[in-house]
């Protein structure tokens, strides 16, 4: 389209109205999706947060930890204490299973649905064996 000198090109008002409507709809839908996604994320993360908190508490449970000279070593579990099968923490929502690379496994509760696992160390006599602690629902 050729323009003459001094002539301004103006978008038709209907095109401007359509662009405004599309922008409004896009912002509305985007805002809706952000809040919906946020709500789903927060609800699912509460259960995960509880599981992580439980892992943190169990890794510091004095009834299971290796003790030397009155010091407890976090994340190092003694086989004798694991065989006793007693936790200091009382709860009913989660169960745990601690297994080492030698194939020994110690369960506290019924471990059906494994959710998270973290590396731990199992002390058997003078041997330190790498293992994992699994949190189940």
Outline of the structure:
The protein has 137 residues and is α+β, with helices and mostly antiparallel strands. It is 38% helix and 31% strand. The protein contains 2 helices and 6 strands.
Helix and strand arrangement:
Layout: H1 13-58, E1 65-68, E2 71-78, H2 79-84, E3 95-100, E4 105-108, E5 114-124, E6 127-136
Parallel strand pairs: 2-5
Antiparallel strand pairs: 1-2, 3-4, 3-6, 5-6
Helix proportion: 25-40%
Q: N- to C-terminal separation?
A: 69 Å
Element string (H = helix, E = strand): HEEHEEEE
How is the largest sheet built, in terms of strand order?
1-2-5-6-3-4
Shape: rod-shaped
Number of helices: 2
Write down the oligomeric state: single chain
Radius of gyration: 29 Å
Structural class: alpha+beta
Low-confidence stretches: none
Strand content: 25-35%
Counting structural domains, the number is 1
Mean pLDDT: 82
- Main sheet makeup: 6 strands, mixed
Can you put this structure into words, describing what you see?
38% of the residues lie in helices and 31% in strands. The mean pLDDT is 82. The chain has a six-stranded mixed β-sheet. The longest helix is centred in the N-terminal third of the chain and has 46 residues, at 13-58. The radius of gyration is 29 Å and the shape is rod-shaped. A hairpin with a 2-residue loop joins β5 and β6. The chain has one domain (12-137). 13% of the residues are buried. With 137 residues, the chain is an alpha+beta fold. The protein contains two helices and six strands. The chain has helices at 13-58, 79-84; strands spanning 65-68, 71-78, 95-100, 105-108, 114-124, 127-136. It starts with 12 loop residues before the first helix and ends with a strand.
């Amino acid at each position: 389209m050729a323009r003459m000198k001094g002539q301004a090109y103006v978008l038709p008002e209907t095109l401007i109205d359509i662009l405004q409507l599309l922008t409004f709809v896009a912002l509305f839908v985007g805002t809706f999706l952000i809040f919906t996604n946020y709500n789903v994320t927060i609800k699912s993360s509460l259960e995960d947060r509880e599981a992580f908190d439980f892992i943190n508490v169990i890794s510091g449970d004095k009834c299971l930890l290796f003790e030397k000279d009155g010091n407890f070593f976090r994340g190092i579990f003694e086989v004798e204490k694991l065989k006793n099968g007693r936790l200091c923490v009382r709860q009913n929502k989660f169960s745990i299973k601690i297994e080492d690379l030698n194939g020994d496994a110690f369960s506290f509760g019924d471990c059906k649905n494994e959710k998270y696992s973290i590396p731990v160390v199992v002390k058997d006599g003078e041997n330190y064996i790498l293992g994992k602690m699994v949190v189940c629902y």
